[in-house]
Amino acid sequence: MPDLKTDVLVIGAGPAGSMSAKWAAKHGARVLMLEKRQEIGSPVRCGEGMSKDWLKDVGITPGRWINLEVEGARIYSPSEKVFEINEKHAGNEVGYVVERDEFDKQLAIDAANAGVEVKLKTAAVGILKENGRVVGAKVKEFGQTYEIRAPITIGADGFESQVGRWAGIPTNIAMRDMDTCLQYRMTNVDSDVRYCDFYLGKVAPGGYVWVFPKGDGLANVGIGVQVSQVKSPADARTYLDRWIDHHPGYAKGKKIDMVGGGVSISAPLKQTVADGILLVGDAARMIDPLTGGGIANGCIAGKIAGTVAAEAAHAGDPSSAFLQKYEKGWRARLEEKLYRNWLAKEKLVTLSDETFDKVVDVLSGVTLEKLSVHNILKAVRDKYPEVTKEFEAFL
């Protein structure tokens, strides 16, 4: 394989990678995007729910990858009191239920149509550095190793980014900031296609059980549990199977697919750029620490990343100082909510089932014009002031 040169090298073809690549190409850069697997979007490791109000901002047109448009979400307390939220206020995981592999492929198609060159089954095995600056990557394609040189490299290779570590950016994650997740696709179940459902409490220590409907009688039924609160990542399956067994509408169902994996629930990285490199999406820990969802945040940051990467390439300035435009841009858009949700997560994982019941009891009886941690706690304080004592900082 001959060594290659490009303006912007994107490592990873998930949503954040494809979005970064597309917007870099739309701003006139030569872009090469690598995907280590032979098929973009597979295997699917996602609950497949997403909000929809951000799509237009980043240039995504709704398409055949949408299974359902839902009305909102239902939050269930441990005693299964329920609080309904419309999709506008339900967060980044509610609005559409999608076929995630089709969604990822469509974003890659959009990138390719914008001029991006895509290489499949091509893995980065190291980065290239000159005078402390990243100048590309060493890659392996079908057993052959060669170099791709680029003034700007974008790491979009998932949480605990190896690309970031190679570049000297700390990306290791604490156990308390990680969920282990398992999901079945089930048929012959009694899910309500109007809602995405979330079950809180000790049924899923440090996380939640979710049900995302895919159609009549078909749903994704999954669980995320905090790694530090279980003896083994394999415990996620035990908790999920137990929840299913206690819900007749799902116990009668049939499992037709199963996926598992880890998800970051940490605060965002303190550093996402260095000379010649920037990190985006899960690689920069842009996953919402409360929900574990990261598609919207990765795509929003990807547009900023691609735009700044193209500008840096055109200016001939790949320095960390120039790339601060990306650092400041994505943080202005996303960081405050990510950090507040991380702080909220740190408190929520300590709550008892009794407290969760009280919170949902209050919410089921009030109407909030804007759903936020602050407004939820104010409502709870009115009925159960003892519950909010540990949350004064949020008020």
Q: Which labels suit this protein?
A:
395 residues; alpha/beta; 28% strand; 3 domains
CATH topology of the largest domain: FAD/NAD(P)-binding domain
In angstroms, what separates the terminal alpha carbons?
59 Å
Average pLDDT: 91
Order of helices and strands: EEHEEEEEEHEEEEEHEEEEHHEEEHHHH
Label the CATH architecture of the largest domain.
3-Layer(bba) Sandwich
Widest sheet, order of strands = 7-6-15-16-17-14-18
Biggest pleated-sheet summary: 7 strands, mixed
Q: Give start-end ranges of low-pLDDT stretches.
A: none
The best one-word shape is globular
Strand content: 25-35%
User: What's the number of domains?
Assistant: 3
Describe this structure in words.
The protein has 395 residues and is α/β, with parallel strands linked by helices. It folds into three domains: 4-46 and 101-173 and 268-335, FAD/NAD(P)-binding domain; 175-264, 2-Layer Sandwich (D-Amino Acid Oxidase, Chain A, domain 2); 346-394, no CATH class. It has nine helices and 20 strands. The chain has helices spanning 15-26, 100-113, 162-166, 235-245, 248-251, 295-315, 320-348, 353-363, 373-383; strands at residues 4-5, 8-11, 31-35, 49-50, 66-69, 72-76, 82-86, 96-98, 117-120, 122-130, 133-141, 144-149, 152-155, 178-187, 195-199, 208-215, 218-226, 254-264, 273-274, 277-279. It has a seven-stranded mixed sheet with strand order 7-6-15-16-17-14-18. Helix 6 runs antiparallel to helix 7. The longest helix has 29 residues, at 320-348. The mean pLDDT is 91.
Task: Summarize, please.
This protein has nine helices and 20 strands. It has helices at 15-26, 100-113, 162-166, 235-245, 248-251, 295-315, 320-348, 353-363, 373-383, and strands at residues 4-5, 8-11, 31-35, 49-50, 66-69, 72-76, 82-86, 96-98, 117-120, 122-130, 133-141, 144-149, 152-155, 178-187, 195-199, 208-215, 218-226, 254-264, 273-274, 277-279.
